[in-house]
Amino acid sequence: MSEATFNQAELAKFNGQAGQPAYVAVDGVVYDVSGIDAWAGGKHHGNLAGQELTAIIDTRSPHGRSVLKKLPVVGKYAE
Question: Where are the transmembrane segments (predicted)?
C-alpha cells in the first residue's frame, strides 16, 4: 500500500472536526493524532489539526518530536 501525499489544502480537510480524523504534518511526514485525547476536537494547546506544525513542535512543544514515534504515519506532506 502506498502512502498518501498531502498538500496544504488536502491536509486542512483532516482537522478533527465534523467526524474527520485529525492529522498534523511535521518535517514532511503526516501523523494521525485522532486517537490522542489531548487532540480531541482537533485542537491541542492552541494548535489546530490539519496543519503543518514543524516550527511549533521544534520551538514551542515541551516534548518536542519525541511523541511522534508513537503516532501512526498516514502519509507524506508536500507543499
Answer: none
